[in-house]
Amino acid sequence: MALGPLAVFAIFLLMVKTNPLETYWDMLRSTIGNTYGLGEVAVRAAPLILTALAAMVPARARLINVGGEGQLAVGALTTAAMAMVLGDRWPQAPTLILLALAGMAGGAAWAGLAGVLRVKLKLNETICTLLLNYIAFLFVGYIVHGLLKDPESFNWPFSPPLADVARFPTLPHSRVHLGILIAPLVAGLVWYFTARTYWGLRLRVVGGNPEAARRAGLNVERIQLITMLVGGMLAGLAGMIVVAGVEGRLRPATGVGFGYVGFLAAWMVNQHPLWLIGSSILLAIITVSGDSLQITAGLPASSVNILMALVLLGVLARFYQEKKST
Amino acid sequence: MIVAVLVGAIRSGTSVLFACLGELVAERAGIVNLGAEGAMLVGALTAFSVTALTGNPYLGALAAALAGALFSLIHAYLAIHRRANQLASGLAVMILGQGLTAFFGRTYVSTQIKGLDPVSIPLLSKIPAIGPILFQHDVLTYLSILLVPIIWFFLYRTRWGLVLRATGERETVAYATGHSPDRVRYAAVAFGGLLAGLGGAQLSIAYTLNWVENMTQGRGIVAVALVIFASWSPWQALVGCYLFGGALALQLTLQARGLGVSPYIMSMVPYVLTLAVLLVVSQRQRNAMPEGLRAVFEGT
């Protein structure tokens, strides 16, 4: 499945006079070829798993949530705001729990906006969430230039650094932090809920045939709204992990790209909550290797966007074949 | 200042108008193309690079139109031939456009070009206030305004327009009258990409005169949203796009005057405005939606 896009990207690399085999080898060596690279992949994959889930849960109710990007940004913002309020007053565990709650609330609120527009006014959620992404990043920009600006940052648009108690414990000499464990746990929970509970059953009915669900007495709109809220919560949690894990403060570009790549990860595996752990790790390898491409092959980091779009296009083209054969 | 804002509304609304009209034609045939954002970027970069290499901005605009049309065929293939989810496929094409243009555009970041000059229309451009607002623009701007009645005429007064609309409403009708819905859709999406490419060209070689990574800033997405606002009608699209352009222009004018509002808040206004107009008109708009789009937009 992954061979088609890899081959097309190889042709692209040849066109720009870069050796594709060497490039792929570099991409592998710099990511899963050493402990530091592996750590970077893990750190990158964790928020991706959550933003992938943020796309997957609404997708189960036939909603296309492309707002993971903005929901993560708002979650990161509320996390940073909560961290500023709390300071270092409380011990680590309750501080981190409150931060996670703040992040989830922020993300859910942002997604809820699109969800309400969708179920009350039938406004298409794809377009709403895309527009809200732009608004969210401008809003974060506004806040880090104003309310949350670090007075000691010499005019750089940063929030003040989070207190030590508001940071996840990290492994020595690495950026790997405890927060990354949350992501697979949440993925397991989402799998359990969708596959093994009455809730999941109702969701399957709504996703399978909304009209049948409506006739069976299910409140389709309510279920759709809830999936959006849950999606936003998960994206907001991703924002919290980014802020309390690696970044340690809010910047204007905190979490940029995670939303779209997570969306891609969910579509790659046809919205399966456990398989998307795998696709998220794969895409994390591709994004992390983007940085090394820049250094070794002189390609801009954005070139991996091309590879990622190709992967998504390949996946989308594949679905039809599967439908046909069954 | 009012004249400045109105001139700016047209100058900055034109790129959106191109994309919006193109999207409108594609949606009338039943295909939603979020890849318009990508096609605009491809158009903007193609126009800019061709202008920089040849020194001829008209050649640049032509190349941009072709590039936009070709680029949109990726989406057309996936949506029509492979029956992929249109919104997801459009999004993939958008990301591809962002990646490709960021990659190929990096050598043009500080290049300077001589773009399309404004062409004053004799006599009319001398009218106070109205002259500068309407009759002192680049050729692409005039073209975009001319396209509004042309597309209207095509859709409602020609046989081909009827076939196109039938394809979007109920493809079996088009099929029964001996037309291939797929072929109509390919043509409509390619035409939409062509206009999105021209919109990108207007942005880079007539308006900003530079190339910046991801310079469309969501204009393609806004164009898709404004098609809904416009109830799939070219005339209302014109209104919507200049409204968006006006919000952009007002924001720039106010910033230039040093108004004490954060530029971030000001930059939000066009997007918030787009969402707000969608909100206001959404109920009415549902009836105007081509039947074939309902499955895409409402997922039911």
Features of this protein?
heterodimer; A: 326 residues; mainly alpha; 13 helices; B: 300 residues; ABC transporter involved in vitamin B12 uptake, BtuC; two-stranded antiparallel sheet; 2 strands
Short summary of the structure?
The complex is a heterodimer of chains A (326) and B (300). Chain A is mostly helical and 326 residues long.
Radius of gyration of chain A: 20 Å
Number of strands of chain B: 2
- How helix-rich are the residues of chain B, as a percent range? over 70%
- The CATH architecture of chain B: Orthogonal Bundle
Any idea what the radius of gyration of chain B is?
19 Å
The side-by-side strand order for the widest beta sheet of chain B comes to 1-2
Uncertain runs of chain A with pLDDT below 50, 5 residues or more? none
Low-confidence stretches of chain B: none
Let me know the largest β-sheet of chain B.
2 strands, antiparallel
Number of strands of chain A: 0
Through-space gap between termini of chain A: 18 Å
User: Counting H and I runs of at least 4 residues, what is the number of helices of chain B?
Assistant: 13
CATH uppermost class of chain B: Mainly Alpha
